[in-house]
Amino acid sequence: MESKSCILIGAPVDSGKRRQGCLMGPDAYRVAGLAKTLGELGFEVEDRGNVPMGPVEPAHSSNPEVYALGETIAWTKSLSQAAQSAMADGMPIFMGGDHSLSLGTVSGVANYAQAQDRPLFVLWLDAHSDYHSPLTTASGNLHGTPVAYVCGRDGFDGFPELKAPVPTDQVCMIGLRSVDGAEKAELARQKFILHDMRAIDENGIAPLLRGFLQKVADQNGLLHVSLDVDFLDPSIAPAVGTTVPGGATFREAHLVMEMLCDSGLLSSLDLVELNPILDERGKTASLMVDLVASLMGRRVFDRPTESFSGLDTGPGVH
Questions:
Q1: Quick check: is 273 catalytic?
Q2: Can you give the CATH number for the domain in which 249 is found?
Q3: Distance between CA atoms of 295 and 262, rounded to whole angstroms?
Q4: pLDDT of 287-313, one tens digit each?
Q5: Is there a catalytic annotation at residue 258?
Q6: Does residue 65 carry a catalytic annotation?
Q7: Segments forming the whole domain that contains residue 54
Q8: Residue 22 in domain
Q9: How many domains does the chain have?
Q10: Residue 310 placed within a domain
Q11: pTM of the model
Q12: Catalytic residue at 228?
């Protein structure tokens, strides 16, 4: 990590889909002890509270299915400004909120990276590719559009002008398992680095992530990670309205976090799609906080392995 200062920013966005509840996500992370956990790991923590949604102006889409367009545009403006400002002060952690918040957070971080003359890379940990535009989405739910927006896809009339689009070959998606036909066709025309769950099953998650991190390091890039609850298998993380079976296991998820920590490349983080209404006694919120702890330096197994009866048990864990 480039900073020992963590800036918590609540993004209570609930306009990206019709099922409500994600607006309570930021407070669920606070109750689950995110700030305390980061402090125990030696970080200075500043909680800037929740970003307010800006003024909502009339907005219209030619796609009649689009939901809450004006609200999502307003959130994008507010969060982009908040993200760009926070990047100058430390490592922002955006506590969501549905995934439409990333239209603002990633575009703001990209503006900062451009001002620093450094490339921005994005790691998208999600069951979905989120590469629809407001014109192509069949559901009308704009939480399925942030990657398209930040990469400069057409169809985002009314949204803030994109000053620093992220090249598609600087976006890596891991955990894909719910991508519709229209998205597949468009993704195939781009240069995204795509790893679905079959690739993870066949190769393991470590080599897939390692190659992307090497690319970030080679280009002295900033790295934004967007972690969707539905990246995880719903058996361990039920508090999401878009559950898709067959997601990342507990150990796969922690391994990703530990590898990101080891890389030292992380510069900003989204935590998205936590819906506390759907949680089981805070199970998902607690797991997400534990994953952030691994990302920031804590290990699931933090004690060295001891030899037994004089036998060498191997190098153990780090």
A1: yes
A2: 3.40.800.10
A3: 9
A4: 999 999 999 999 866 544 444 333 333
A5: no
A6: no
A7: 5-295
A8: yes
A9: 1
A10: no
A11: 0.93
A12: yes
